[in-house]
Amino acid sequence: MKLTRCILTTRFLVMGLAFSLGGCATMAPTYTPPVAPVPAALPGIPENRSEAAQVVEKPFAEIPWSEFFGDQRLRSLITLALKNNRDLRVAALNIERFRALYQIRSADQLPKVDASAGAAYQRIPAGLTGRGSAMTTHQYTVSAGLVSYELDLFGRVQSLKDQALEQFLATEQAQRSVQISLVSQVASTWLNLAADRERLQLAQETLTSQQESYNLTRSRFEAGVSNSLALNQAQTTVDAARVDIARYTTLTMQDENALNFLVGSQVPAELLPNALTETVTTMKYPAPGLSSDVLLRRPDILQAEGQLKGLNANIGAARAAFFPRITLVSSVGFGSSELSGLFKGDAFAWSFLPRISLPLFDGGSNKANLKVAEVDRDIAVAQYEKTIQSAFREVADAFAQMGTINDLVAAQKSLVAATDESYRLSQARFDKGVDSYLQVLDAQRALYGAQQNLITTRLTRISNLVTLYKVLGGGGRD
User: Fold this and answer.
1) Is 182 a residue whose pLDDT tops 90?
2) DSSP states of 381-434 as a string?
3) What is the pTM of this model?
4) Which of 5, 34, 317, 366 is the most exposed place for a label (fewest CB within 10 A)?
5) Does the domain at residues 31-112+147-324+359-471 carry the CATH identifier 1.20.1600.10?
């Protein structure tokens, strides 16, 4: 009971001393966010476009991914990915690691009080006792006290704590950034699979059609109505379709493998798409006239700023190294030559060992450490500004594509219709003997190429919205 009261009394006295002497302001420079090196406004939607009326007033960063994506299969797939993806799991574990590091730095601001007990036995030879005979001594101690506690008069420990906090917060933003990328990657890969499956279906339908044309041409050749040139030309279209079937079969399998990797497990077949759909997302376009300040809410930019703040705080620790450091070591307890008398009589003992350390000559290491800290901060400023510039370019590129994508899709649909009519007319003229089969082949190839390109442009239009959602910070919340 005496020992318990002794430990508690010591702990409260020391904590009071620490809070009264420590906890001063740090010597870190006042943090001022760098001015964003980009235009004040993001590129907007042209006002003369009909799509400008189909805008989303709510910022994309505030729209949960489960609300942005309308296809239930894709939502289920993203849910699986967020649960099983290893990159996201590592990001979550990094948060736990930096949280623990921050707790370590926070603990450095508080006194550490240890309790200890010990016993020492010693035999002293007769020649050293002065009594002519050997002697055995016994010593028993029990004590509690401070373990090298630093009074943070110049904010060194506080600066290190601030740096650890900013690193922890930056790691949280890194996890959000990983999630945004993961959601976008899953959606993009799912859309690529849908497009490749649609291309494969078109190639299979084309092969069936070309095979029928080949069979008809062969019959005409065997009847002496057609020549070998037309037969070989028909064979080339069949072989070209077979080549595309093999290529798109490989691409669909690779797309499925990519999805399995992103999701972290085998994707159920019922969650895979069969063809592109325009209802993947019900959203249209972000509102025009957005300020570039919306980019500052992107997690990768917040992460870069957190790292900058941490390195700014580290300058305070480097500056504090030029000033004295006061360290306290103390203990109170009991000591006795007999175990039974440890807490009896005049057995109380104490010690107090304050120590001050003042740097006089260090070969310039403290000055060099300060220079390193300042340069690290300047590097972080440049990296922060570059991150903002990269984000602005990503958004600008997505807006640039958005400005013409609907015109591209409309033109491609018109091209498909025109080539389909040309193919129909060429086939009719060949059947009547007006044109050669070469005209039919050219029309077939043009139609097939236009149909494949239409799938690509439709994929580009849908993917553009997914990209806009990502680059504007969407996908980091559910």
Assistant:
1) yes
2) HHHHHHHHHHHHHHHHHHHHHHHHHHHHHHHHHHHHHHHHHHHHHHHHHHHTTS
3) 0.81
4) 5
5) yes
